[in-house]
Design brief:
The protein folds into 5 domains: about 5-200, P-loop containing nucleotide triphosphate hydrolases (Rossmann fold, 3-Layer(aba) Sandwich), CATH 3.40.50; about 210-400, 3-Layer(aba) Sandwich (Rossmann fold), CATH 3.40.50.300; about 410-505, Arc Repressor Mutant, subunit A (Orthogonal Bundle), CATH 1.10.10; about 530-615, Orthogonal Bundle (DNA polymerase, domain 1); about 625-725, Orthogonal Bundle (Arc Repressor Mutant, subunit A). The protein is about 50% helix and about 10% strand. It has 34 helices and 17 strands. The strands form 4 sheets. Strands 3-4-2-5-6-1-7 form a 7-stranded parallel β-sheet, with helices on both faces. A 6-stranded parallel β-sheet has the order 8-13-12-9-11-10. Bound molecules: adenosine-5'-diphosphate (ADP). Adenosine-5'-diphosphate (ADP) binds near residues 27, 51 and 298. Adenosine-5'-diphosphate binds near residues 46, 49, 52 and 298.
């Protein structure tokens, strides 16, 4: 009876206030639990409806619920939404003025307020604690509870003081909520909030409609454009690590015909909001963003999420990819992975305190393991969050592709025996060291070199054994200890396996070592630069260049430079228009030399049945930056280079760098007026003849040959003159 009535109240409020007919998942049970005064722990994926779990009981119960949330921007959002529903809710954080604070205080003490959102920094202030002590409070909600744990990805030291403060203000029931928590982080949250006895409500993290894929970061700009073109007109998010990268990639997509906009914390907030709105209202299809984007975004039809750079943690990755496919329709999550990105991220952490740095490193390692592994992605991700699948789920790159499988029985036995023989007290690295006979300090000091598993590597290397250990965890034979998180222990299944070993199929990790990843700073000048060049075509193009050079009595590089040929061998330009998109190829060159090259490529494409990726022609973005345009204009007006350097406030040699960039990417420059001033005809002729005879246009070679008699400045300027006159 009573339960029915209570159920009615809950459902009526859900309908009347929020307009929803039914609870989702565990919501009703959770709400009942906190309303009965029990500590409650909610683990629910993003978008599943966590806020309802504390908003609804806050509205029904007497007094004010305190919601601790680290996200000030989101706080305002939620309060605005609640106010729009007619609920009295406010927030208390550092953005409020004195008058606003007084207003909030008054309403709280009046007992009119249903929810008070507080930032952790504000909660720790004496005056606020005193205020809360005086108020009539119903319960405390700790949102984003993973921030409590230094083992998570978003540690906030102030979160550690929450429990003491709650005790101080009146020992209220707590509801802790998070969308991301590994088993270790969960245990940390419960310990810290002293709610080990709390009722836990875990919803499955399995996002069945998301297709997960990792690709090595090779020729990534081209791949990105091709991918986004396949989803033409559909909504997607591209995450990049830096603001600069965000701007660059947004521009790249734009010039390649995608309705894309950038979003990052460095932008003016009104512009940021404008871009977010454009994305939500479908004026823009793609948003290119740093991880600043996405919190609180509830767009149901995001069809793809791309991590253009490696993410900092699997937690972050799962939250970000979780923004795809909220409507339940199939969506694609693609990560471009390069170990270089991981190293770069590690460098960013170097100024952090030791523990934080170690944890960040640990999280990054997990990203790297994930990318390199060929185990079903869903299985890996779920395992990371403490859920086991007993077989592959599929719907990912790894299960779709052929991967090398092998019977893991004996290898797994070796791993489990090593864990047991070393007393279940060591981490993965140590286990692998023992098996591979790497005599580390620990191996010798614990005399693990005397064990019979020592050196039982069967000719396999460290990486192989690391992969076996990780797969042993995914197969639930080993687990990480919850207190000593790096320590490995056998599970019951692990013990059973030792007694009754059976065949378990394992898969070999990906080997990205032979793949030439993108350079760190792949500037727009070498976009599409040919890691994936068609070698045969490249050689043919080089042959043609040589022939033409001979006919015209010119050095080959004057016709097209190597990077341009490589790019041609990558994207097969079959028209003048396509050819003009290649870096270093201007219209002048096309008219002069283009025809035979286009003919050759066309024939090659036909003979080899190549589907030309003309849709994937990567047009360079921002080839002509403001500086470049300024320099071109000044040279047109015959302004001396030292004056240009002065008015730009950049070093003279940097101006020459820019001039070279301009010239080598296909714009003719006439420097005669300046060269005449700094050198006489004879000297000019000497350098000219050198370049005419030279095999390459390499500056080092030229300096070596001419450097005793000519300055670097003279050689470089003459090289530009030479290229401009002969090559265009
Ligand atoms: P989370 O905090 O878990 O990421 P939110 O609390 O922001 O998710 O909820 C995501 C969306 O689901 C919101 O738009 C919310 O209004 C909606 N929602 C929550 N509960 C229900 C429900 N019972 N029925 C329908 N929609 C709901």
């Amino acid at each position: 009876m009573v339960i029915t009535e209570k159920g009615d109240i809950l459902r009526n409020t859900l309908k009347e206030v929020f307009g929803y007919n039914q609870f989702r998942g565990n919501q009703e049970k959770i709400i009942n639990n906190i309303m009965s005064g029990r500590n409650t722990f909610v683990i629910m994926p993003t978008g599943a409806g966590k806020s309802m779990c504390y908003q609804l009981p806050a509205i029904i119960q007497e007094g004010t619920a305190v919601v601790i949330s680290p996200l000030i921007a989101l706080m305002k959002n939620q309060v605005d939404q609640l106010n729009a529903f007619g609920i009295n809710a406010h927030f208390l954080n550092s953005t409020l003025s004195k008058t606003e604070i007084n207003k909030v205080k008054k309403q709280l003490l009046n007992g009119e307020m249903k929810l008070l959102y507080v930032a952790p920094e504000s909660l720790t202030k004496e005056e606020n604690i005193a205020l809360l002590k005086k108020a009539n409070l119903s319960f405390v909600a700790v949102d984003e509870a993973h921030c409590i744990s230094e083992w998570g990805h978003d540690f906030r030291p102030e979160y550690r003081r929450i429990k003491t403060i709650i005790e101080d203000i009146g020992n209220l029931p707590i509801i802790a909520l998070t969308a991301t928590a590994t088993p270790k982080v969960r245990s940390d949250i419960q310990k810290n909030l002293k709610m080990e006895e709390a009722d836990i409500f875990i919803s499955s993290f399995h996002r069945k409609n998301l297709f997960y894929e990792v690709r090595p970061k090779q020729n990534s700009k081209k791949q990105l454009i091709k991918f986004v073109h396949q989803y033409k007109g559909k909504a997607g998010i591209v995450y990049c690590l830096s603001r600069k990268k965000v701007e660059e990639i947004a521009e790249l997509l734009k010039v390649n015909g995608v309705k894309a906009l950038p979003y990052h914390a460095g932008m003016d907030s009104s512009l940021r909001e404008k871009h977010q709105d454009a994305f939500l209202s479908e004026d823009a299809d793609v948003i290119v963003a740093t991880i600043a984007f996405g919190m609180g975004i509830d767009k149901p039809d995001v069809r793809f999420v791309i991590h253009y750079d490696a993410p900092k943690s699997i937690e972050g990755y799962y939250q970000e990819t979780g923004r795809a496919g909220r409507d339940g329709l199939d969506s694609h999550c693609l990560m471009f992975f390069s170990e270089k990105d991981i190293n770069k991220l590690e460098k960013f952490n170097k100024d952090k305190p030791v523990t934080e740095r170690d944890n960040a490193k640990h999280l990054l390692k997990e990203v790297s393991y994930y990318a390199n592994s060929s185990v079903c992605r869903h299985r890996q991700l779920l395992h990371y969050f403490g859920e086991y699948l007993d077989k592959d789920y599929g719907f990912c790159d790894n299960t779709k592709k052929d991967r090398e499988e092998f019977n893991g029985k004996n290898y797994l036995l070796t791993v489990l025996q090593t864990v047991l023989q070393t007393g279940e007290r060591f981490n993965m690295e140590h286990i692998v060291d023992v098996i591979c006979a790497n005599d580390s300090q620990y191996v010798t000091s614990y005399t693990h070199n005397k064990l019979d598993v020592y050196g039982k590597h069967e000719g396999k290397d460290n990486d192989f054994w690391v992969s076996v250990v990780r797969q042993a965890m995914i197969h639930k034979l080993l687990v990480k200890d919850i207190d000593e998180i790096t320590v490995l222990k056998l599970t019951e299944e692990g013990h059973n396996f030792l007694e009754n070993p059976k065949t378990i199929t394992l898969t070999k990790d990906h080997d990205y070592s032979n793949i030439k990843m993108d350079e760190e700073e792949d500037s727009s000048n070498n976009v599409g630069h040919a890691q994936a060049a068609d070698e045969t075509l490249f050689e043919l193009l080089k042959g043609l260049r040589k022939k033409l050079a001979k006919q015209k009595d010119l050095p080959p590089y004057v016709i097209f430079q190597d990077p341009s040929l490589e790019e041609m061998a990558t994207i097969y330009p079959c028209t003048e228009d396509d050819l003009s998109k290649i870096n270093g190829v201007g219209m002048g060159k096309i008219k002069k030399f283009g025809k035979p090259f286009i003919e050759l490529i066309k024939n090659y494409v036909e003979e080899n049945d190549i589907v030309t990726a003309s849709d994937v022609v990567v047009k360079s973005a921002v080839n002509k930056s403001k500086t470049k345009i300024f320099i071109i204009q000044q040279i047109d007006r015959m302004v001396d280079l030292d004056e240009i350097s002065e008015s730009l406030g950049i070093d003279y040699f940097n101006v020459i760098d820019e001039i070279e960039n301009i010239c080598f990417s296909g714009t003719k420059l006439n420097l005669d007026y300046y060269i005449e001033q700094i050198m006489d005809d004879e000297r000019e002729e000497d350098i000219w003849s050198y370049f005419m005879e030279a095999e390459t246009d390499s500056l080092e070679d030229a300096i070596e040959e001419l450097g005793d008699d000519y300055s670097e400045e003279e050689i470089r300027l003459m090289r530009v003159k030479f290229m401009s006159e002969v090559a265009f």
